[in-house]
Amino acid sequence: MVPMLLALGAGLVAGLVRAWVAKRPPHAPSLVLLWLVPVALLPQFIAFYLPSTSKSISQELASVALISSFVLLLVFAWFNRQAPGIWLLGIGLLLNLIVILLNGGLMPTSPEVVQRIFPFARPDAWQLGNRVGTTKNIALTIQQTRLWWLSDIFVLPAWLHYRVVFSIGDIFISIGSLLLLWSVGGPPPRQNRPGEQL
Amino acid sequence: MSKLTRDVSLFASKIDRRTVQLILLLVSLTLFVIGAGAPMGEGGMGG
Predict the structure, then answer these.
(1) Please, what is the Cα angle at B42 between B40 and A114, to 5 degrees?
(2) Closest-CA residue in chain A for B38?
(3) Which of chain A's ends, N or C, has fewer CB atoms near its CB within 10 Å?
């Protein structure tokens, strides 16, 4: 989570500094259906984050939770596509969804990556073709993975001392969030004056 | 009116619509990023 949240933090600071330099108040871009975001996260919260349910939920239900959540987030991105950066968020989300749909409903990642992320896990802690613990990931070899280059293939460098894996889609999402927050310091949207043609 | 209520009212009066919109944007974007792919914690994996 850290790399993407860092992008959020960097975007917010950049947007506020931009507003401060231009001597104008920061403003949030106008977004619709904001309520859809927490609603979309609810199935994931139950399937992956809530300790009491994330351990007992089946792989099939976890897939349904992840896919339905992504579809709702895509709807949100589509209705807000005019806002800066949202189209990149949508593309990242779509890339993640495509590789998830093509590989059994969870985000594939290779055994090598799983071993790098969980170096001290017991050998029986995860199995090829199954969900890795309570994560959104499924362990599949590169050969088994359709569009493997869209899966979770990147690992943060060791010198960061934070083992985390992410995908090309996640990179798009990070850049999109950065752009959206950068726009907070931009000129406010032009208001149509009375009599002006829409 | 208690001191706490007075302080809360004073704080609320200072928050304008623009600030509320900014906070809403931040919260929504954070939730979106978590939902759309952010891994969870140390050793986490994404979606």
Answers:
(1) 85
(2) A1
(3) C
